[in-house]
Design brief:
Helix content: 25-40%
Number of strands: 10
Shape: elongated
Order of helices and strands: EEEHHHEHEHHHHHHEEEEE
CATH architecture of the largest domain: 2-Layer Sandwich
Strand order of the largest sheet: 3-2-1-4-5
Strand content: 25-35%
Number of domains: 2
């Protein structure tokens, strides 16, 4: 394992939902036996606003990204950098979704690299720890990580966590990449095809999609998981796909909070002429 090359990577974004939110930073680091070989980092112009509460987390402001490369250039640069090397990310499905969405959006051939999740690794290898978040792990292991939620510092933290995981793997007599792959199981892969739903939207959802794009305030009849239907006033923010399902993310006046609504559970809707500002 120490002789194998890996690339740790991280994305920072405007929020949680690909298709509505966008990447604002990509960073990556190639290393072998703990030694850094090469680095990649770029800010990304998301071509939309960065909510202030999100800027408060990662410190990336709209002024910082106004002249940065747009998503297609940034993702192509990232793909060129990673080559065919195996990838690492902490909570990897999050980063995979944003890279995959941009591959879908810009018609970029997705990389075929295996992606391993250091969050999953840490949970399996260090079950005695109460928290497996990146900040907690870097503190526990004494890994330098003074700046949180920025691309390169998080990449270096992920690299450090993986090195600790390799040391624990040695105690399980897992010494080679082949043994690691067998023990780990199935890595994840970039899969932009799952976002085809946003383009090939079923006809019955097209009026709702148009209303969301216009920014209409809507009254909807929504069925929750228990089968109960309620009338709700919502402020749509965007459409996104997760795990093969279509969702609209919106401010819900009934719950007085942002909520995610599965499209198939919206049984009726109508635009409202009245003001629909959050309470």
């Amino acid at each position: 394992m120490h002789r194998s090359v890996f690339v740790a990577f991280d994305t920072e974004t405007t929020g949680l939902y690909p298709g509505f939110d966008q990447i604002v930073e990509i960073a990556a680091c190639r290393f072998r036996n703990g030694e850094i070989i090469d680095e990649f980092q770029t800010l990304v112009n998301p071509e939309r606003d960065i909510p202030s509460e999100i800027s408060d987390i990662h410190g990336i402001t709209e002024d910082m990204v106004v002249d940065a490369p747009k998503g297609d250039e940034a993702v192509n640069g990232f793909i060129d950098f990673i080559g065919n090397d195996p990838l690492l990310a902490h909570n990897a499905p999050f980063d995979e979704r944003f890279i995959s969405f941009n591959c879908h959006k810009y018609d970029i051939a997705p990389p075929s690299n295996s992606v391993y999740d250091t969050l999953l690794l840490a949970r399996r290898l260090f079950p005695e720890l109460r928290s497996h978040g990146l900040a907690s792990l870097t503190t526990i292991f004494g890994i330098p990580h003074e700046v949180k939620h920025r691309g390169m510092p998080d990449v270096m933290g992920t690299r450090g966590v993986f090195i600790q995981c390799i040391e624990r793997l040695q105690t399980l007599q897992i010494h080679t990449r082949e043994q690691f792959d067998e023990w780990y199981g199935n890595p994840i892969y970039f899969s932009p095809d799952k976002y085809n739903l946003l383009v090939n939207l079923p006809d019955e959802y097209l009026p709702l999609k148009e209303a969301v794009e216009r920014g209409d305030c809507l009254e909807v009849i929504y069925e929750d998981r228990s089968g109960k239907r309620t009338k709700r006033k919502i402020i749509p923010q965007g459409l996104y796909v997760a795990y093969g399902n279509l969702y609209v993310t919106a401010y819900c006046h009934l719950r007085k909070a942002n909520r995610n609504f599965k499209l198939e559970r919206i049984h009726a809707f109508r635009p409202l002429d009245e003001t629909c500002d959050p309470d």
